[in-house]
Amino acid sequence: MKSISPFVAAALAALIPGLALADADHGGVKQPVDRGPANADYEPAFPEQANAPKMEATETTIETFVEGLERPWGIAPLPDGSYLVTERPGRLRHVSASGEVHEPITGLPEIDAREQGGLLDVTLSPEFDSDRMVYFTYAKPVDGGVATAAARGTLSEDMTALENVEDIFVQGPPADAPMHYGSRITFDGEGHVFITTGEHFTDEYREMAQDITNTYGVVVRLNPDGSVPEDNPFVGQEGEDAIWSYGHRNIQGAAIQPSTGDYWTIEHGPAGGDELNRPEPGANYGWPKVSYGVRYDGEPVGIGEPRAEGIEEPVYYWDPVIAPGGMAFYEGGAFDGWEGDLVIASLVPGEVVRLDINEEGLVVGEEALAGGNGRVRDVEITESGEVLFLIDSEAGAILKMSPAN
Questions:
Q1: Is 152 a domain residue?
Q2: What does the pLDDT look like over 324-383, one tens digit per residue?
Q3: Does position 218 have pLDDT exceeding 70, yes or no?
Q4: Percent of the chain with pLDDT over 70
Q5: How many helices (H) and strands (E) does the chain have?
Q6: What is the mean pLDDT of the chain?
């Protein structure tokens, strides 16, 4: 039996004083995860869009897998059980299956590591076994400004160098604000690569997320060599051919849902309004015209409403925020009942968030895990089903979460 929404629960509690808040599986009602008061008083467009019922707590064990990293940002598993890990100051590391950190891999391009910029995401070519191609995103210095860029190179057999590095995408135009780079890079399993960007944060730049003649605040869809697929929504129209969707703020998480092949993203809102989306071709996701959050000074965003005609609704939003990083759909046998759930990195308050997503693509449960360990920047599911998560700090680390006992 699926749980009823927390909003229906609140109405029932008001009508029936003393109504017990019992476990949802037993016909009662659960409250959402408590992260404090909301920044805005907007109502969701549908009951499952926010404040999903808090799920029964998972008992876990957390141990340190890797120490001695500086601002780790992205992680990619290699076929031999080892990993590639990025450090935002501009280093790509090979980490052995036992957690040994090796010297920085050579061959990276020039990287602008100011503010939120630097070396960001990393992933492997779907044909890595034959082409040894590594794809990564970074803050690229361009004409006195900076831009989100995606590049690829061939990893040497001894894991010490990237060779023949070339850009496959450079955001345009360059900005003078080293903030909001987006930067998650994801293969869709159908011969395409998705790259997320941000809108560089400032009042001057954020409005550009509504302008499809640039690549600020968009999802980009390309062929692996950087060429544009002919079926992209704006090919042959006014607008950048590479754009898949637009009106985003700062997308730092993306994943392909194994059961459906759908592409999902998660982006930072302002004060409130972090969004989980399933971007559709040519669709507008609203920033900065509408938001379920408010500006940092408490003033309304855009038109002062959370929705408008022609704007796509998020699948789910948070207020207050979780400040999302990377995410992954859970596949593995370690945690019972997690299969198909979405596992998300949270920078603030700093935790691993689990969402239960039903067959209709709606969020029907939420759990906060691993709190108190610091800012979580990215997550990775091991072959055996444990969760690795990156702690973003000067004394960064990779921690491993396993079921207790």
A1: yes
A2: 999 999 999 999 999 999 999 999 999 999 999 999 999 999 999 999 999 999 999 999
A3: yes
A4: 93
A5: 3, 23
A6: 93
Task: Report yes or no on 36 lying in a domain.
Answer: no
**pLDDT per residue over 26-66, tens digit each?**
345 689 999 999 999 999 999 999 999 999 999 999 999 99
Q: Pick the catalytic residue: 26, 102, 180, 200? A: 180
Please indicate whether residue 180 is annotated as part of the active site. Answer: yes
**Beta-carbon-side half-sphere exposure of residue 183 (alpha carbons within 13 Å):** 30
- pLDDT attached to residue 28: 57
pLDDT at 254 over 70: yes
Query: How many residues appear in the chain?
Result: 405
49: left (phi over 0), alpha (psi -120 to 50) or beta: alpha
Range of the domain at 264: 61-403
What would the two tokens of residue 365 be? 């449960």
Q: Determine the pLDDT at residue 29.
A: 67
Backbone angles phi, psi at 237, to 5 degrees: -120, 175
For residue 397, give both structure tokens.
């680390």
What CATH number corresponds to the domain at position 347?
2.120.10.30
| Distance between CA atoms of residues 50 and 320, nearest Å | 11
Element containing residue 138 per DSSP (H, E): strand 133-142
User: Does residue 52 lie within any of the structural domains?
Assistant: no
CA 359/CA 364 separation, integer angstroms: 10
* pLDDT tens digit sequence for 265-324: 999 999 999 999 999 999 999 999 999 999 999 999 999 999 999 999 999 999 999 999
What contacts 243, CB < 8 A, 6 or more positions away? 212, 215, 218, 219, 220, 221, 232, 233, 234
Helix (H, G, I), strand (E, B) or coil at 207: helix
| CA–CA–CA angle 221, 224, 225 (5° rounding) | 110
Q: Which helix (H) or strand (E) holds 396?
A: strand 396-403
In a domain? residue 24? no
- Copy the structure tokens of residue 404: 């207790």
Counted domains in the chain? 1
